[in-house]
Amino acid sequence: MLYPQRLGQFTREHADTVAALLCGFLLFLGWFALHLGWLGLAFLLLPAAYVIGGYESAREGLTTLFKEKELDVDLLMIVAAIGAASLGLWRREYHLIIDGAILILIFAISGALEGYAMQRTERSIKSLMSLTPDTARVLLQGREEEVSISQLKVGDEIVVKPGELIPTDGIILSGYSTLNQAAITGESLPVEKTVGAEVFAGTLNGYGALQIKVHKPAQSSLIVRVIRLVEQAQTEAPPSQEFTLRFEKGYAKVIVVAGILLATLPPFLWGWDWETTIYRALTFLVVASPCALMAAIMPTLLSGIANGARQGILFKNGAQLEKIGKVRAIAFDKTGTLTTGQVQVFQVISVSKYTQKDVLKTAASVESSSEHPIGKAIVQAAGDLDWISAVQVQAIPGQGIVGITQEKQVIVGNAVFVQQYVANLPEELREMAQSLEQEGKTVVWVAKNPTPNPSPLAGRGVEVMGVIAIADEVRSQAAATITRLKKLGVEQIVMLTGDNAETAHTVAKAVGIDRVYAQLLPEDKLDVIRRLQQQYQTVAMVGDGINDAPALAQASVGIAMGVSGSDVALETADIVLMADRLEKIAVAMHLGRRSQAIVKQNIVVALGFIILLLVGNFLGNINLPIGVIGHEGSTVLVTLSGLRLLK
Question: What angle is formed at CA 523 by the lines to CA 520 and CA 526, rounded to 5 degrees?
Fold first, then answer.
């Protein structure tokens, strides 16, 4: 029973694809039956291919005709196909029925591809929804009770345990913890929060339990606003798409009107007989069908997509391959995009009495007992060194950590914390630390007390060993990528980040970006993209986090990092860099520009063939078989031309 259910589900989810496959299968069987002279079987199979493959196009075309009073290419293709089939039956040239079925098959395949593109919005919203839990622990008369998120009210008090996602926006009533907000706000380091601080739904709680008061309805939380922004931005049709729709409608009108005139006027104007007139009119519908124009575009774009896939660039649809070649401005997220998103030891500075290894080993001995990301970065940096884990370790949230190693007390933390144990911090080291902090680095001080006493002993033998600077590492290829994009003619390159301005400007300077927007929420990034679009029209956005999703959706081309990117960023983006290699953006732009050039060449060839066939048909120098051969031949020619992008 499981297989019929799965088959039914697959058929519902991929109805357009199933219709195109059935149409192609019936078309092949019908052609084979005609080839063997089995007319009865062919006349059963081919109409079925017409109905299955052309139903959706006919429905959309008739809906547009009756509701919007407009003609579109869908209806034109159905008329042309039926005209070819009717003419084939009339003159008993049954191969024309095959030509009509081929026209319908081409449109059925196109409809299936469009259907897959339209499903992205729904998948994006589902991915966003999965970021928050369905329930929250609410405190009711001193007891915890799980309730649905939708039932939360302003004023409710909820409990969030270590390692859990924050279920809704709120204010901390009690507790202390670090929260990973990178996916929501773009901050590179986990943020320490305690009583009075605001927390956001979808952020990950660290090592501390929190009691939170709901201060706004769950429907107004930051993550829900992100969802709405993604949905709105993805449903806004870009100008190029609107232009294409207008062109299709105009083209269909011209062809239909010309076909009607050609079927009625020649007997009165030039004395043609009605059989010749109808024959020429139907031939006109076949040769004027925009199959060659369609083939001028899709095979080229699909070839470019295949080429990009081989190089680790995933284009989600052909339109984005075209657009990436027209990009005039690019916005980069910082954390996880221009940087690796993983905090690491940036620099170790020791006083003259100690070495950098001494400082790292001493800090790692106590930090090995810590779950804090900074502690993990220090332990990772000291991984190859010989150190012993400390005992009697005591962490003071937001300040530092102390412990005993080899009968010596070790103190690691911020300057204020270490000063409780040291009378004076070395002035030269203090200046270096301040300089590093101005560059956006997090500075950790390391001190050692020969007496294994965990209490503060200011000035009693405690020695400062040095400082360790922690930072989010800039991607090695980021600077070269920015330089390459500028050489390609990108007019404006900006950075968008939720991180602080000092850190943002430091990273921007390192990679060669002049314009920085810092401390942005998701809606702020969206506003910047809109302003760039007003000035530069075609704008790309490169990001990896949930906070980038609205901007990725709004941008003309959204580019996501495939390895470090969040699920919603990958779903929302139009292009995914599968190996997080920023230099592939320039490769994608080159592919886009090549595709534009080939498409233009193909359109010229396709239009040239159509004009020649139309003139030949009007002068009576071609018959329908020759017209079909010319029509299909031009389609094959531009298709082969488009396959050049596979190289």
Answer: 95
